[in-house]
Amino acid sequence: MENKVFHNLREQENSSIKDYINLIKINFLPVLLISLTGLIVASLYAIYAIDIYKSTVVLKVAKPSGSILNSPLMPEFSDFGSDRFIANEIEILKSEKIRSLIIKQIQDSFKVIDADSFYLVLDQDSKFFSNNKNKKKLLPYREISKLLEKVSIDQKRGLDIIEISVESPSPFEAAFLANAYAKAYESLNLSYNRQQLVVVRDFLMEQREEKYHELILAEEKLKNYQEKGGIIALDEQAKSLIAALSDFQSQRDASQIEVAMTQKALDQYKEELEKKNPSLTQYIESYAAEPRLKSLQEQIAKLETQRDLAIANKNVPENKRLIKDYDESIKELKLKLDEQLKIYKTSIFALSPEEVRELSLNVLEQEVKLISAQSKKENLEKIVGKYDKKFNELPSQTIDLARYQRELSAYEKLYLLVEEKYQEALINEQSTPGNVLIIDEARRPELPSKPNRMLIVLVGLVIGVGMGAGFAFVKNYFDNSVKTPEDIQNNDINVLAWIPQIDILEENKDFEFIVAKKPDSLHAEAYRALRTRIQFSKLDQKRGIQTLLVTSSAPREGKTTTAVNIAGTFAQANKRTVIVDCDLRKPRMHTVFKAQRFPGFSDYFFGQSTYEEIIHKSELPNLFYITAGTIPPNPSELLSSDQMVAFLEKLKSEFDMIVIDSPPIVAVTDSEIISRLVDAAILVVSANNTEIELMRKAAELLTHESKSFIGAILNNFSYKSGYGSYYKYYYYYSHQSKGNGVAKVKKIDKV
Asked: Which of 436, 327, 442, 453 is nearest to 48 (CA)?
């Protein structure tokens, strides 16, 4: 049972595939034209498409390592933190600030680089002035910014690598823009990493210049004093006092600079932190000013000051031991301070968001550094005050010279300290690297990356074929005409036969009577098969079928051709046959036999011609025909009269078979009237022409109590389209016919 079901499914699938193939075959010409159109359009586009060059710069972006206190408490899995960091950097690359830096590079380069090297950023209107470079100009800022938004910026999956790709019809422009992106990003990243160092450097540079001018001024004052004849030498006690005082004074001034410098850095860190978390700033300040921390810093500053005093009096034997004790005490206090800071930092950053941890750490460190510097400055001010008292106790004649020398010595030492700090800051700034490394700079591409012309042509062909097939399917979906014998059978109408198309030149209608012209052709064989099925369609009648009506649902479906050829086959079977043209509206029988329409059927009825005058003998033995004659004003009344019944009885007495050609049954009632007078009626259906609804309506009109309707004939059926076994049947007979020398002829006009 399962095998049977599977077999049926396979048959349905194969049948469906065959239907699709047959549908393509039927619409082969439009499918071919549409496919060729798609191929031609794609080929033209491929030929005239502008070459697009692609250039890529590769960057490695390292994530800042930070300190152990800045790292998360739990380890990050799948490198999620790194991917998030790279995603943030990509957003920076797409920012308006980066684009503004690139546009600045473009504007500067446009002044010195040949304008023909650009394409995308060049104003399209200015390209018409190709003979004058000065008339070429760049797009407005906003237009270039929108253009740069389309630049491809992507991360290599799982790596800290960013690729920036630019596409342009100009290979130079592609490489230039990609490198401009990389350089702008590298510069911005470097300036951000050095931001705090730059602030310190600038401040120290100002102090350096200021102290230098003060030193020069002090030298001028001492020189002028000595030139006026003042004292030019001091005793050893005064020199020693001045040296110590100037030393501590320079340290005090240096500590003041340190306080100001730390305050500047702290203010900048606080400003950045307040933008992200304002409440955290006050929280960190309270921790930095915590009494225990402050007490440790004050003790360290006091011991350092006392150590400096001991160093200033090296001549005292006990001072060497004091200096060593001070160093050990300072070291112990600094260890305690570091341990306390570590505890505070851990508690502060345990719940801090990742993006503010490093910034918070910097704020705390600067707060602690500021408090320490302030404590040291206060202690130095006290020492300077003590030395000032001793200085004022010098003899009056030496105090002026001592003051000038003290001032000069203090400025010299201070200037040297500031210069040392400045050089240190400068070195720190230059040695601080960014976290962006350009691995591969963008190079000028030699070959275009787009368009792929072969692919475009192939895609155009595929789309063309797809559109052609789609056209065939859509046309078939909306086409409600009869196409195959199955369409007739599905409407519960018996199929008597299917007549293949008669291939004949339109202007040559000699082959319309094909059973007489080509009796050995496939078409004649189909009509003979139809004759056999008509004869055996009503075996219950004693005398069989003697009168046969041929009609159709609409004009130009081939009913006259069918009627003539059916009559011809009966005549060839040695039956005395007559065909009557009862289409009294648009008769055409006389054209088939190349005869006059007068006298004819209607003339006999009106008494204008005799019975013998209207019967004409054809070129085929046993076949006679009666033309329509004069077209009457009331065909329906004429056909439904008693004279019509008597006329048929008279024909039955003289002929073995009577074939009646009538008008379309849906258009007029003539055929419906005649169908009640004959033994059998057949409906001619034209493939790909007759609408299913019209066929169904015509069958309903022919179906009545007399039961004369015996079935339909599918005319003009194309076996070449291939429908199951019908195709095999046609192929076999058409091949046999070719072997017998039967020539093919063109399709005739439908009647």
From this structure: 453
DSSP code of residue 263: H
The residues spanned by each domain of the chain are 2-49+462-477, 53-194, 197-431, 485-739
Considering the entire predicted model, what is its pTM?
Answer: 0.53
Q: Taking Cα atoms as reference points, which of 272, 258, 422 lies closest to residue 362?
A: 272
Sheet containing strand 152-155, strands side by side: 152-155, 161-168, 53-61, 436-440
Answer yes or no: are the C-beta atoms of 561 and 661 closer than 8 Å: no
The pLDDT tens digits for 8-21 are 545 555 556 777 78
Contacts of 234 (CB under 8 A, 6+ apart): 242, 398, 401, 402, 405
CA geometry: angle 733, 476, 727, nearest 5 deg: 10
b/e sequence 541-551, b meaning 16+ C-beta within 10 Å: eeebbbbbbbb
Confidence label for 501 from pLDDT (cuts 50, 70 and 90): confident
Q: Residue 11 in contact with residue 439, Cβ under 8 Å?
A: no
Q: Using pLDDT thresholds of 50, 70 and 90, give the confidence band for residue 155.
A: confident
What Rg, from alpha-carbon coordinates, does the chain have? 56
Is beta strand 53-61 parallel, antiparallel or unpaired with respect to 436-440? antiparallel
pLDDT tens digits along 423-441: 776 666 666 666 788 888 8
What is the C-alpha separation between 27 and 479, in angstroms, rounded?
12
Domain 485-739 in CATH 3.40.50.920? The answer is no
